[in-house]
Design a protein that fits this description.
This protein is of the alpha/beta class. It has helices spanning 14-22, 79-91, 97-104, 115-130, 163-166, 180-183, 191-198, 202-209, and strands at 3-7, 25-29, 42-47, 50-55, 136-138, 150-152. Helix 1 links the parallel strand 1 (3-7) and strand 2. The protein is globular.
């Protein structure tokens, strides 16, 4: 059984969902130390003027090495309203936003205390909409060594790292994007970019973007 280890992620990129699809089992790390400027609390969408990062603010932990499972979401800056408006502005004219928006809206109206719970709930929704049923669990401890049947992508799927060098097995297949004529195709954006543009065909795009390990 092939297992992939992943960090928690907010509206994770396409590459992340390829891992959930192609591995037999996924373990989401909850005992890692929270790090800034990662997909743990940010995603990238295709806004009319280009890629746009959306960041969930967190309450600054008391210690510099706070485990991810203890990170709390902040209410600072009316971020839920801003994120929802940004998603509507970016995807209101896509083929499937109208179809899925009522599934996503509640996440920007209700409050989650912990970032991991918020990320997990969003991920479960997305998997159900794509018709994926990955075997996912949270880590029991922080692992530092892995067997040949285990792959560690906890820090390799990262907004500041190039997936082309970090993950040569991931070959993102182009799909329709609403601003493609203006921006060109933007690979490995948040999974919602794929979902809102391609709807039920999202699963096929994921399958074509990553071979079985």
């Amino acid at each position: 059984m092939k297992t992939v280890y992943l960090s928690s992620a907010y509206l994770a990129p396409v590459e992340y969902y390829c891992k959930l699809l192609t591995y037999d089992r996924a373990v989401i790390e909850q005992h890692d130390h929270y790090l800034k400027q990662t997909y743990r609390n940010r995603c990238t969408i295709a806004a009319p003027d280009g890629p746009l990062a959306l960041t969930v603010p967190i309450i600054k932990p008391d210690t510099p090495k706070c485990p991810m499972c203890d990170i709390r979401i902040s209410d600072h800056g009316n971020w839920r309203h801003l994120h929802w408006n940004a998603l509507q502005s970016a995807y209101n004219h896509t083929p499937f936003f109208e179809y899925y928006k009522d599934d996503f809206r509640p996440f920007y109206e209700q409050k989650y205390e912990f970032l991991m719970d918020f990320n997990d709930a969003l991920g479960q929704l997305i998997c159900s909409l794509i018709d994926m049923e990955p075997r996912i669990s949270r880590s029991d401890e922080y692992k530092t060594s892995f067997t040949p049947d285990e792959a560690d992508f906890r820090e390799r799927i990262h907004p500041k790292k190039d997936f082309r060098t970090e993950d040569p097995d991931f070959r993102p297949q182009p799909y329709y994007q609403v601003f493609q004529d203006k921006l060109g195709f933007l690979p490995n954006l948040s999974i919602v970019d794929l979902l809102f543009n391609m709807g039920p065909e999202s699963l096929l795009v994921l399958q074509e973007s990553h071979p079985k390990p």
